[in-house]
Design goal:
Layout: H1 11-19, H2 23-32, H3 36-51, H4 60-80, H5 84-94, E1 107-114, H6 127-131, E2 140-146, H7 186-207, E3 228-233, H8 240-250, H9 255-268, E4 270-276, H10 278-294, E5 315-319, H11 320-339, H12 344-355, H13 366-372, H14 379-391, H15 397-409, H16 411-420, H17 433-437, H18 440-450, H19 452-463, H20 480-489, H21 491-500, H22 509-529, H23 550-571, H24 574-591, E6 601-606, E7 609-614, H25 628-642, H26 645-648, H27 660-678, H28 686-697, H29 706-718, H30 722-732, H31 736-740, H32 747-750, H33 755-777, H34 789-803, H35 808-814, H36 825-832, E8 833-836, E9 845-848, H37 865-881, H38 910-922, H39 933-960, H40 968-973, H41 985-992, H42 1002-1023, H43 1029-1075, H44 1077-1087, H45 1094-1097, H46 1118-1121, E10 1124-1126, E11 1133-1135, E12 1143-1152, E13 1181-1192, H47 1193-1214, E14 1227-1228, E15 1235-1236, E16 1238-1241, H48 1257-1282, H49 1313-1331, H50 1341-1363, H51 1374-1389, H52 1396-1410, H53 1427-1437, H54 1439-1442, H55 1451-1473, H56 1490-1507, H57 1517-1543, H58 1558-1565, H59 1573-1577, H60 1580-1591, H61 1594-1601, H62 1622-1630, E17 1645-1648, E18 1654-1656, ...
Antiparallel strand pairs: 1-2, 3-4, 3-5, 6-7, 8-9, 10-11, 12-13, 12-16, 14-15, 17-18, 17-21, 19-20, 21-22, 22-23, 24-25
Bound molecules: zinc ion (ZN) (7 copies).
InterPro entries: ClpS_core, E3_ELL-like, E3_ligase_UBR-like_C, Ribosomal_bL12_C/ClpS-like, UBR-box_UBR2, UBR1-like, UBR1-like_WH, WH_DNA-bd_sf
Pathway: Protein modification; protein ubiquitination
Subcellular location: Chromosome; Nucleus
Length: about 1750
C-alpha cells in the first residue's frame, strides 16, 4: 500500500540487543525483586513497542518469534523455575486431566446430539467422542457448528445415559475428586499466581483501555516515538462495497488491498489502514468518516444486512505504542490459554486470579472487568478472551459455578450492553449463557440463590417499553431502530428456555418460592400481552394501512415453548401447581375485572331455559387474538384435572372464585372472530388479520393459542348448564335471533332480505356447529380426556395420514415440536403407519395402517378446510375400494376425565336439540340458500356423536351397572317442545331419508337410523326381556332387502361414473400428449420407418454378409435411401436430398473433459492451438448432442430470429436473464425446450458404386504417396508463386501426378445452397464452441474441429454403452441415434464448404503421422495420437483428395486401408504402453488362440529389437494377446459405430446383444481378420518399413520412459468416491481452510465431484479473474477441470451444484438420504445421512452423458428464480 515507509529503528542495533537478551537471566532477576509487577511492566514497556506494530510491512512471523524470545520466554522461565520445555512437560505428566472433553468447535465442524440421551439439544459431542460413544447406535441428530461451544463429553449432567466416550471414561481407581493443586509445590503455586495475575491484569488493562494516545501507568515507554495508526473498526451497517470504495478513496490503495482490509475488518473487528504521523492518519480518518456518512442506501450485501440509518464507520487514530500493547495483550491471553493446557492446576490458579475480587469491591475482578467492557471491545479481542473463558472458567467445575454466579449477577447489565451493541450474539459474552444455564444443577442454583428466572424475565420486560393505556405492549409505533432492538432482546427468551429446559425432580421450599416469584414476573409479562393488538371490524371502507401484527406473533411464537415449560414445571409439584393456578386466576380476573363494565346485561331464553349475559358483538367492538393469561390458566386447569388435585384437595383450590362465563368469554370471542373472518365479514380489514388467524391455527402457535382456547371453553362449559352455555354461544355468534324465535324452523320465510347476510349466517352456523363438535369431541388432551400423551400424537399422525401418505419430514412439519425440537413421533409412528422406501427419485412415505382408519374424525380440530375435504375424499375412496359403505361416522372417543365429564350433556340438551331440529326442518326444502350441505353434514355428525356416546355408555353401564342417564335416542324420538307439535328429530330424519335432493347424505342418515334401531334393541334387551329373535330377524331381513336394491342402484351409478371417467381420461390423454410432445414424437418416430435409421430395418439389397467398410460393404438400395422427415415447426414433410431444402436437427455443442485422463493439462491457447491430432489423454474434446427434433433450416432461422428479437426487447425492458444466452447463439428447442446452440444439417447417404478392381494395400499406398508428392509440390508451387519472390533452391521438385489425378480439377458441389449454408453454420459453431474463439468460417481449423467432435462424441457414447452395460447397437435412444448419424454424415460433407487446399493439407499431415513422409514436418509420434480420432479425420478428409482422382479408385477401398493401417498402429501403441508391470503366468496354455499368441509375440520381439531395453521381456504370448484384445476393443467398437453411421450398414445381430462373440462379430463387421496381427504379417513388405519409421521417431524413446503414459484400454472416468456417512464429509470440510486468506476457515467449502478438489466458494477471498470478470472459486475451477461444466457438492448445505459457463447453474438433490428416504438440502433437519449409490450413479450418468448443461436448462426453465442467481460468484 501507499502508506509512508517509516524510519524504523535501525534493525541491526535492535538485533544485537535481542541477541544479548537472556530469558533465564531476566527470570532470575525477577525472582529477586520485591515489586514484581513493576519490574515486569517495565520490561513490557521497554520491549513491546520495539517488537510490535512497527509499521504495516513487518513480517508477522518475526513479531511472534521475537515475542516468544523476549516476552514469553522470561515469563515461562519464571513460572517453571527451569528450562520451560522441561518444566512444562513435567507439569503435563503429573497432570490428571478432568474427564471433560471440552473440544472447542470450529466453524462448520460436525456436532452430534443424541435425541434419546441428551439432557437438551444444546448438549453435543465432537465427532471423535461421538464415534467412541454409545450414542452412535441411538437416534441422533447431526449439525454443523457455527463455531464456539464445546464438546460435552464427560459432563454427567448433559447426558441421561453414556456421558463418557471410550476416551474420556474415568479411571475407576482415582475417581475421588482431588484438588488439582495438591501435587504442585507451594513455590510453584506462588510463582504461577504471580505471573498469571500480572499478565492477566496487563491484558485486561490493555484490552479495556480506551485512550488513543496514552498508556496505563507503568507502561509508558522509555523513549516515545510519534507514529500513529489509522484504525478502522467494523460495524454491522456498512456493506463490503461501501467500505472497499471508501478505502480506495481514503488511503489511496488498490481494490485488491481494499478488499483485503475489508475482509480483515469483518473478521477481526478492526484493522489499521494507514501508518504514519498524526496528521497523515487524521486525514485518512476524516475522508472515511465523511464518505461513509454520505453513502446512503446502497443495499447491504455481504457485510451484514440491517436496515438502519447509516452512521459513519468508526475510525480512530491511535498511537502506535497503544496498538502494540493491545497486540501483545491478545498474544498474552493466548499464551495463558496455552499454558493452562499443561495442567489442571495451572488452570485452577488462573480461574482464581481471574475471579479474585479487586480492591474496588463488587464487580472488580478481572473477569468482571472484561465482561462489563465486552460491548466496547472489537471482535478479535472478544473472541480471544471468550476462548480463554471457555478453556479456563468453564472447564473447571468449581470456578464454573463461581463464574456463573458473577454472570448472573451482572446479567441485566450485560444484556443491556448487548442490546445496545450491534454485533451478532456469537461475538457477545452473553452468548456464554448457554454453557451455564443448561447445566441443570447450575440453573437450579442460580434460580434459588440469584433469583435468575425473575431477573431474566424482568430484564426482558424492561426492554419492551412501548405500552398502551392499559399497559399492554404496543409494537405498532416501533421505529426501525426499536424493531432491531426487539430482535436482539429476544435472545433473552432463549436464556429463559435454557434455565427451564430441565425440570426439577425434587423441589425445595426455596426453589418453590423463587420459581413462583419468577412465575409472578412471567404473569406480568403475559398480562402485557393479554389483549394486545386488538382489532375492530372495518365496515364501509377498507383499512388504509395494514396494521403491524408480526412483532406480537413473533413474541407469542418465541414464548410458546416457555409457556409450555412453565406448565410442565408446575405439573411436577402439586403445591406449585395450586399456587400457580391461583396466581393465574387472579391475574386473569385482574385483566378482565371490568369485563361487564359498560356492557348492557341482557337475558337470553330458549327452549324453556334462560340465562343472563351481556350484550357484546364481536363484529362491532374491539377483540384481540392474544390471550396468553387465559390460555395459561386453561393449561393449568387441564393439569389439575390430570393429576387429580382437584378431587384430592378441593379445599385448596379457588373453585368458588371461578366464574365460568368470565372464563369462556374471551376465548369464545376469539373463536367467533375466526368464524366471522371465515364468513367474509372482516374482508375490509386486510391481510394482517387473515395472517393472524392463520398463525393462530398454525402448528407453530396453536398449542398455546387455539388448542388452549378450546380447552378453556371445555372447562367453562363443563361448569355450566349446557343450555346456558349454548345460548351464550349463540349470542356471541350473533345467531341467537335465528334460533330463539318461536318459528325458527321456518327461518327463511322471515329472513331472506339480503342474500349476503343469509350466506354469512349459514357459514356462521356451520362454524358454530363445528365448534360444538370440537367442544364435545376433542378429548385427546391428557387431563381433558382419559388419554396418555402418546395417544394424542398417535391421533395427530393418523389424521395427517388420512389426508394422504406422507414423508417423514412432512409429518414432522405437521406436528408441534417441543422445546427439544422433538415431536415424539418416533415412539408411535410404527403403530399407526407403514413405511414405504423411495426409488431413485422421490422420498420414502408413511402410509396409514388400514386398521387405524376407524379413528378418523372428519371434524378433527387441526384440519384446515382444505385438509378436511381432501381427507374426506381420500377416506371415502378407500372405503369404496374396499367395497365398504362409504359413510364416515364419528369415531368412538375416549372418556372424559371427571372434571370435564359433564360436557357430554351438551349433546342431549334442549337447546342443541332445538338447533338440530331446526336445521333438519330447513333441509326439507330442496331450494337453495336456506341451508347448506356442510351445515346438514355437521348436524348429522352431531347426532352420530350422540349415538356413539350412548352406545359407549350402554357398554360401560353393562359392565358396572351404573344408572346411565345419557339417553340420546329417547331425546331425539320426542317431538319438539318449544314450538309445540313439531316433528321429532328421528321423524325428520326418516322423512329426509327419501328426499331426492339429499343423495349425498343418505348413507349417513341410514347409518343413524340403523344405529338408533340397534340401540333401542339393546336397551330393550338389557332393560327387560330377552330380545325377540323374530322381530329382530325380520328387521334384519328388510334391511337386507333394502341393501340389495341399494347395491343394484349403486352398480348402475358406478357404471355411469366409469363412463364419465373414461371420457375424462381420453381428454386428459390428449392433454398429456400436448405436454409431453417429445416423448410422443419419439414414439411416433419409432413407428414410422421413414423418419430415422431406416436402413437397419430393411433387408440388405447387396451382400448377405454384414460388413460396414471396404469394397465388400453392405450397400443401401435406392428405396432404402429415401428418407422423409417432418418439420416440427411447420409440420410439412420433406425428403432428405442433397439438392433439396435443408433439414436440420437442433443440437448442442459443448466442450468436454468427461473422458480426460489428464486434468492437469493447462487449457490451450485458443488462437495458436493446432487441434489436428488428438492426444490420447483426451484432455479436451468437443461433444455434440441433440434432442433429435427436426426442422426446416428456414423455419429454424425464422424461429431463432424471433427469439433474438424477443430477447432484445426483454432485456431492454426487464434486464432479466433467460436460461439461454441468445447472443451466444443459444435457443431452446421449440418442441421440447432442450437447450441448443446450433443445428446439424441432415444429409442423405452418399451414393457409391462398387467398382470391381481395387488396388491392394501396397499398391494403394504407392499410388497415394505419388498423389501426395504431386499435391505437396503443387501446393508449394502455388504458395511460392503467390509469394512472388520465388526461391528456386528450396527443393521444390516438380513432381508429375499419377495417372488420372487432376490437380487442377474442381469438383462440383453436390449440395443445394441452403444445405451448404447449414454446413457452414454447424461447422462454424463447432469451431467457435470447441476452441472458445470468435466465429470465423474461413479458419483452416473449422473442418478439423468438426471431425474431432464427430470422433469425440462417438467415443463418449461408446464409453457410455460400456458403463451402462448395454449392447453396442440397438440400445441408443432415437435422439442419440439421429444425432450420431447426422453428425457423421455431416463430417463426411463438411470439406465441401472449406478450402480444398486446406483440407488436402490436413490430409497430408494426417497421413504422414501414419506413413512417415520426410516432406512433412512435425509429425507426431504414434504414442501422441489418439488412433480413433486419426481414423475419423483421415476418412473424413480423404474425399478432398479423392475428388481429384478420375482413375476409379474408390472411397471404400481407401477407408478399409486406413482402418487396417491404423489398427496396426494401435496394436503397436498398445504393445508399447499397456503391459502391466507384473505379468502373471497362471494360464500359460491358452490354446484356443495359439496363432494369435505366437504372432503377437513375434511382433513384440520385433519391437524389442527395434527399441532395445525400453521393453521388458515377456514370454507369454497369451498374456500379450489378452492385453492387445482388451486395449483395442474400445477402438474397434467406436470404429464400428463410425462406419455404421457413415455407410449405413446394419449391424449384425451379435452386436445387438451383450455377451460372447462380440470380438468375432466386430472383426467381421469391420472386415478385419480376427487375428489382427495378420494385418501386419500379411503385408510385411510395407509394414516393416512403417514399423521402423514409427519406432525411429525421436519423441518415442523419451516418451516411453515417462510415467504419464496413457494405457489402453482407457478406463471410464467416474465421479469421486464419496464416504458412506455424510458427517465424514462435513468433518473433512471443517478442516479445510481457504487457500488464499492464510488459514481462515472457508464459509462455503465446496467439493468438486469430478476431481475431488475442495474449494472456498462464494467468497471474496477466492475470487479470481477469468476472461476479464471476477468469478468465484467454483466457476474458475470448472474452466480448468470441466471445460466450463462443473459438478460440486456444497458440503454445509448438503446440496449438489451444477455449473455451466458463467451464467448457468442449478442446485440438484444430493445423493445422501436419511433413514426415512429423504434428502436434507440445507442440513436443516439433522438426521444422519447416508450415501445412496443409485442416486449418485444417476448424477454420474448425467455427467457422462454430457447432460449437465441440459439439466440446468430444464431446471432454470422450471424455476425462474434460478436464472437471477449470480452463478459466477459461487
Ligand atoms: Zn469431544
Ligand atoms: Zn469424549
Ligand atoms: Zn444416546
Ligand atoms: Zn418447416
Ligand atoms: Zn427438442
Ligand atoms: Zn475438479
Ligand atoms: Zn477463500
Amino acid at each position: 500500500m501507499a502508506a509512508a515507509e517509516t524510519d524504523r529503528d535501525a534493525p541491526s542495533a535492535l538485533c544485537s540487543e535481542f541477541l544479548n537478551f537472556s530469558a533465564k537471566d531476566t527470570a532470575a532477576k525477577w525472582l529477586q525483586v520485591s515489586n514484581l509487577p513493576k519490574e515486569v511492566y517495565q520490561h513490557l514497556a521497554c520491549y513491546v513497542p520495539k517488537i510490535y506494530c512497527l509499521g504495516p510491512n513487518l513480517n508477522p512471523q518475526n513479531e511472534d518469534l521475537l515475542a516468544q524470545l523476549l516476552l514469553q520466554g522470561p515469563l515461562e522461565w519464571y513460572l517453571c523455575g527451569e528450562e520451560p520445555s522441561v518444566g512444562l512437560s513435567k507439569l503435563e505428566q503429573n497432570n490428571q486431566p478432568s474427564q471433560l472433553c471440552g473440544h472447542v468447535f470450529k466453524v462448520g465442524e460436525p456436532t452430534y446430539s443424541c435425541r434419546e440421551c441428551a439432557a437438551d439439544p444444546t448438549c453435543v459431542l465432537c465427532m471423535q467422542c461421538f464415534l467412541g460413544s454409545v450414542h452412535k447406535e441411538h437416534r441422533y441428530r447431526m449439525t454443523t457448528s457455527g463455531g464456539g461451544g464445546f464438546c460435552d463429553c464427560g459432563d454427567t449432567e448433559a447426558w441421561k445415559k453414556g456421558p463418557y466416550c471410550q476416551k474420556h471414561e474415568p479411571n475407576i481407581s482415582d475417581s475421588s475428586q482431588k484438588d488439582p493443586l495438591a501435587n504442585l509445590s507451594a513455590e510453584m503455586i506462588a510463582r504461577t499466581y504471580n505471573v498469571f495475575s500480572i499478565i492477566l491484569k496487563y491484558a485486561v488493562d490493555m484490552l479495556t483501555w480506551d485512550k488513543e494516545d496514552e498508556l496505563p501507568e507503568g507502561l509508558e515507554p522509555p523513549a516515545r516515538g510519534d507514529m500513529y495508526y489509522c484504525m478502522l473498526f467494523n460495524d454491522e451497517v456498512h456493506t463490503y462495497e461501501q467500505v472497499i470504495y471508501t478505502l480506495q478513496k481514503a488511503v489511496n490503495c488498490t481494490q485488491k488491498e481494499a478488499v483485503s482490509f475489508a475482509t480483515t475488518v469483518d473478521r477481526d473487528g478492526r484493522k489499521s489502514v494507514r501508518f504514519g504521523d498524526f496528521q497523515f492518519c487524521e486525514q485518512a480518518k476524516s475522508v472515511i468518516v465523511v464518505n461513509t456518512l454520505q453513502s446512503t442506501s446502497t443495499k447491504p450485501l455481504a457485510w451484514r444486512n440491517t436496515s438502519r440509518q447509516t452512521k459513519p464507520l468508526r475510525v480512530q487514530v491511535m498511537h502506535s505504542s497503544v496498538v502494540a500493547h493491545q497486540c501483545f495483550a491478545l498474544k498474552a491471553l493466548n499464551w495463558l490459554g496455552q499454558t493452562i493446557r499443561y495442567s489442571d492446576a495451572l488452570r485452577r490458579i488462573l480461574c482464581q486470579v481471574g475471579l479474585q475480587r479487586g480492591p474496588e469491591g463488587e464487580n472488580s475482578s478481572l473477569v468482571d472487568k472484561l465482561m462489563l467492557c465486552d460491548s466496547k471491545m472489537w471482535k478479535g479481542a472478544r473472541n480471544v478472551y471468550h476462548q480463554l473463558f471457555m478453556s479456563s472458567l468453564l472447564m473447571d467445575p468449581k470456578y464454573k459455578k463461581l463464574f456463573a454466579i458473577q454472570f448472573a449477577r451482572n446479567y441485566e447489565r450485560l444484556q443491556s450492553d448487548y442490546v445496545k451493541d450491534d454485533h451478532d450474539r456469537e461475538f457477545s459474552v452473553t452468548d456464554l449463557s448457554v454453557q451455564m444455564f443448561t447445566v441443570p444443577s447450575l440453573a437450579r442454583m442460580l434460580i434459588t440463590d440469584e433469583n435468575l428466572m425473575t431477573t431474566i424475565i424482568r430484564t426482558f420486560v424492561d426492554h419492551l417499553r412501548h405500552r398502551d393505556l392499559q399497559g399492554r405492549f404496543q409494537f405498532e409505533r416501533y421505529t426501525a431502530q426499536q424493531a432491531f432492538k426487539f430482535r436482539r432482546v429476544q435472545s433473552l427468551i432463549g436464556d429463559l428456555k435454557y434455565v427451564l429446559i430441565s425440570r426439577p425432580t425434587e423441589w425445595t421450599d426455596q426453589l418453590r418460592e423463587k420459581y413462583l416469584e419468577g412465575f409472578d414476573a412471567f404473569l406480568e409479562l403475559l398480562k402485557c400481552m393479554q389483549g394486545m393488538d386488538p382489532v375492530v371490524r372495518q365496515v364501509g371502507q377498507h383499512i388504509e394501512m395494514e396494521p403491524e401484527w408480526e412483532a406480537a406473533f413473533t413474541l407469542q411464537m418465541k414464548l410458546t415453548h416457555i409457556i409450555s415449560m412453565m406448565q410442565e414445571w408446575c405439573a411436577s409439584d402439586e403445591r406449585v401447581l395450586i399456587e400457580a393456578y391461583k396466581k393465574s386466576l387472579s391475574a386473569l380476573t385482574h385483566c378482565h375485572s371490568g369485563f361487564t363494565d359498560g356492557e348492557q346485561p341482557i337475558t337470553l331464553s330458549m327452549c324453556g331455559h334462560s340465562v343472563d349475559t351481556i350484550r357484546y358483538c364481536v363484529s362491532q367492538e374491539k377483540v384481540s387474538i392474544h390471550l396468553p393469561v387465559s390460555r395459561l390458566l386453561a393449561g393449568l386447569h387441564a393439569l389439575l384435572s390430570k393429576i387429580e388435585v382437584a378431587y384430592r384437595f378441593p379445599e385448596q383450590l379457588p373453585l368458588s372464585e371461578l366464574s365460568p362465563p368470565m372464563l369462556i368469554e374471551h376465548p369464545l370471542r376469539c373463536l367467533v372472530l375466526c368464524a366471522q373472518v371465515h364468513a367474509g365479514m372482516w374482508r375490509r380489514n386486510g391481510f394482517s388479520l387473515v395472517n393472524q388467524i392463520y398463525y393462530y391455527h398454525n402448528v407453530k402457535c396453536r398449542v398455546e393459542m387455539f388448542d388452549k382456547d378450546l380447552i378453556m371453553l371445555q372447562a367453562g362449559a363443563s361448569m355450566m348448564d349446557p343450555n346456558h352455555f349454548l345460548m351464550i354461544m349463540l349470542s356471541r355468534f350473533e345467531l341467537y335471533h335465528i334460533f330463539s324465535s318461536a318459528d325458527c324452523r321456518k327461518r327463511y320465510s322471515r329472513e331472506n332480505a339480503n342474500k349476503d347476510v343469509v350466506q354469512q349466517n349459514n357459514t356462521l352456523i356451520e362454524e358454530m356447529l363445528h365448534l360444538i363438535i370440537m367442544i364435545v369431541g376433542e378429548r385427546y388432551t391428557a387431563g381433558v380426556g382419559q388419554v396418555e400423551i402418546t395417544d394424542e400424537i398417535r391421533r395427530e399422525i393418523v389424521h395427517q395420514l388420512c389426508i394422504r401418505p406422507m414423508a417423514h419430514s412432512e409429518l414432522v412439519k405437521a406436528l408441534p415440536e417441543n422445546e427439544n425440537k422433538e415431536t415424539g413421533m418416533e415412539r408411535v409412528i410404527d403403530s399407526v403407519a407403514l413405511f414405504k422406501k423411495p426409488g431413485v427419485t422421490g422420498r420414502g412415505l408413511y402410509k396409514l395402517r388400514p386398521e387405524c382408519a376407524k379413528m378418523f374424525n372428519l371434524y378433527f380440530h387441526h384440519y384446515s378446510r382444505a385438509d378436511q375435504s381432501k381427507a374426506e375424499e381420500a377416506q371415502r375412496k378407500i372405503k369404496r375400494q374396499n367395497g365398504e359403505d362409504s359413510v364416515l361416522p364419528p369415531p368412538v372417543l375416549p372418556r372424559f376425565c371427571p372434571l370435564f365429564a359433564s360436557l357430554v350433556n351438551i349433546l342431549q340438551c334442549d337447546v342443541l336439540l332445538g338447533i338440530l331440529g331446526a336445521v333438519l326442518q330447513w333441509a326439507m326444502e330442496p331450494s337453495g340458500g336456506h341451508w347448506s350441505e356442510s351445515m346438514l353434514q355437521r348436524v348429522l355428525h352431531l347426532i352420530g356423536m350422540g349415538l356413539v356416546e350412548e352406545q359407549q355408555h350402554l357398554i360401560s353401564s353393562a359392565e358396572d351397572y351404573n344408572d346411565t342417564n345419557f339417553n340420546f335416542t329417547l331425546k331425539i324420538s320426542r317431538p319438539g317442545e318449544a314450538p309445540a307439535n313439531t316433528a321429532s328429530i328421528l321423524a325428520l330424519l326418516e322423512t329426509l331419508q327419501n328426499a331426492p335432493h339429499l343423495e349425498v347424505h343418505k348413507d349417513m342418515i341410514r347409518w343413524i337410523l340403523k344405529t338408533v334401531a340397534y340401540i333401542k334393541t339393546t336397551r330393550e334387551c338389557t332393560a327387560s326381556s330377552p330380545p325377540s329373535d323374530s322381530s329382530g330377524h325380520s328387521q334384519e331381513e328388510t334391511v337386507r332387502d333394502k341393501e340389495k336394491a341399494e347395491r343394484k342402484r349403486k352398480a348402475e351409478m358406478a357404471r355411469l361414473r366409469r363412463e364419465k371417467i373414461m371420457a375424462q381420461m381420453s381428454e386428459m390423454q390428449r392433454h398429456f400428449i400436448n405436454e409431453n410432445k417429445e416423448l410422443f414424437q419419439q414414439s411416433l418416430e419409432d413407428l414410422d420407418p421413414s423418419t430415422s435409421s431406416t436402413l437397419e430395418h430393411s433387408p440388405s439389397s447387396c451382400d448377405s454378409a454384414l460388413v460396414c467398410v471396404g469394397p465388400r460393404r453392405w450397400r443401401a438400395g435406392g428405396s432404402d435411401r429415401r428418407q422423409v422427415v417432418t418439420c416440427i415447426l411447420c409440420q410439412e414433410e420433406q425428403e432428405i436430398r442433397s439438392d433439396g431444402k435443408a433439414m436440420v436437427l437442433a443440437a448442442f455443442v459443448q466442450r468436454s473433459t468427461v473422458m480426460s485422463k489428464n486434468r492437469k493439462r493447462p487449457p490451450h491457447n485458443p488462437d495458436k492451438y493446432d487441434p489436428l491430432f488428438m492426444h490420447p489423454d483426451l484432455s479436451f474434446g468437443t461433444h455434440t448432442g441433440s434432442c433429435g427434433h427436426i426442422m426446416h433450416s428456414h423455419c429454424w432461422q425464422r424461429y431463432f430470429e424471433a427469439v433474438q428479437a424477443k430477447e432484445q426487447r426483454r432485456q431492454q425492458r426487464l434486464r432479466v436473464h433467460t436460461s439461454y444466452d441468445v447472443e451466444n447463439g443459444e435457443f431452446l428447442c421449440p418442441l421440447c425446450e432442450c437447450l441448443s446452440n446450433t443445428v446439424i444439417p441432415l444429409l442423405p447417404l452418399t451414393k457409391t458404386c462398387c467398382s470391381s478392381e481395387q488396388p491392394d494395400l501396397s499398391q494403394w499406398l504407392n499410388i497415394t504417396s505419388h498423389q501426395m508428392k504431386a499435391l505437396i509440390s503443387a501446393h508449394r508451387k502455388s504458395k511460392a508463386s503467390s509469394a512472388e519472390a520465388a526461391d528456386e533452391t528450396d527443393g521444390v521438385n516438380d513432381c508429375p501426378p499419377p495417372d488420372g489425378f487432376r490437380l487442377d480439377h474442381t469438383p462440383k458441389n453436390p449440395y443445394s445452397s441452403t444445405i451448404k449454408e447449414m454446413l457452414t453454420t454447424f461447422g462454424t459453431a463447432t469451431y467457435k464452441v470447441g476452441l472458445k474463439v470468435h466465429p470465423n468460417e474461413q479458419d483452416p481449423r473449422v473442418p478439423i474441429m468438426c471431425w474431432g467432435s464427430c470422433a469425440y462424441t462417438i467415443q463418449s457414447i461408446e464409453r457410455l454403452l460400456v458403463d451402462e452395460e448395454k449392447p453396442l447397437f440397438g440400445s441408443l435412444p432415437c435422439r442419440q441415434d439421429d444425432c450420431l448419424s447426422s453428425l457423421t454424415r455431416f463430417g463426411s460433407a463438411c470439406w465441401t464448404v472449406s478450402s480444398h487446399t486446406t483440407v488436402q493439407n490436413h490430409f497430408i499431415r494426417l497421413l504422414a503421422a501414419l506413413v512417415p513422409d520426410p516432406r512433412v514436418e512435425n509429425s507426431p509420434c504414434i504414442l501422441d495420437v489418439d488412433m480413433f480420432h486419426l481414423l475419423v479425420s483421415l476418412v473424413l478428409s480423404h474425399p478432398a483428395v479423392l475428388c481429384l482422382d478420375s482413375s476409379g479408385l474408390s472411397a471404400d477401398a481407401a477407408q478399409l486401408h486406413f482402418l487396417h493401417l491404423i489398427t496396426v498402429a494401435h496394436v503397436v501403441q498398445i504393445l508399447l504402453t499397456s503391459l502391466p508391470e507384473e505379468v502373471r503366468m497362471e494360464q500359460e496354455t491358452g490354446g484356443a488362440e495359439r496363432e494369435e499368441e505366437e504372432s503377437v509375440c513375434l511382433l513384440y520381439n520385433t519391437l524389442r529389437s527395434l527399441l532395445g531395453r525400453g521393453l521388458r521381456e515377456v514370454s507369454s504370448g497369451w498374456h500379450l494377446w489378452l492385453c492387445v484384445k482388451a486395449g483395442i476393443l474400445p477402438y474397434l467398437r467406436a470404429a464400428a459405430l463410425f462406419f455404421h453411421y457413415l455407410n449405413g450398414a446394419p449391424a449384425p445381430p451379435e452386436l445387438h446383444a451383450l455377451g460372447a462373440g462380440e470380438w468375432e462379430a466386430l472383426c467381421g463387421y469391420l472386415c478385419l481378420p480376427s487375428n489382427l496381427l495378420q494385418l501386419y504379417f500379411n503385408n510385411l513388405d510395407i509394414m516393416e518399413p512403417l514399423l521402423h519409421g514409427w519406432c525411429s521417431h525421436p519423441a518415442l524413446q523419451a516418451l516411453q520412459s515417462s510415467v504419464t503414459l496413457i494405457r489402453f484400454p482407457r478406463e471410464s472416468n467416474h465421479l469421486i468416491d464419496l464416504p458412506g456417512d455424510y458427517s465424514a464429509l462435513i468433518n473433512q470440510a471443517s478442516s479445510f481452510t481457504c487457500p488464499k486468506s492464510g488459514g481462515d476457515k472457508s464459509r462455503v467449502p465446496t467439493l468438486c465431484l469430478v476431481c475431488g478438489a475442495m474449494l472456498c466458494s462464494q467468497s471474496y477471498c477466492c475470487q479470481t479473474e477469468l476472461e476479464g470478470e471476477d468469478v468465484g472459486a467454483c466457476t474458475a475451477h470448472t474452466f480448468t477441470c470441466g471445460a466450463g461444466v462443473g459438478i460440486f457438492l456444497r458440503v454445509r448445505e448438503s446440496q449438489v451444484l451444477f455449473l455451466a459457463g458463467k451464467t448457468k447453474g442449478c442446485f440438484y438433490a444430493p445423493p445422501y438420504l436419511d433413514d426415512y428416504g429423504e434428502t436434507d438440502q440445507g442440513l436443516r433437519r439433522g438426521n444422519p445421512l447416508h450415501l445412496c449409490h443409485e442416486r449418485y450413479r444417476k448424477i454420474q450418468k448425467l455427467w457422462r452423458q454430457h447432460s449437465i448443461t441440459e439439466e440446468i436448462g430444464h431446471a432454470q426453465e422450471a424455476n425462474q428464480t434460478l436464472v437471477g442467481i449470480d452463478w459466477q460468484h459461487l
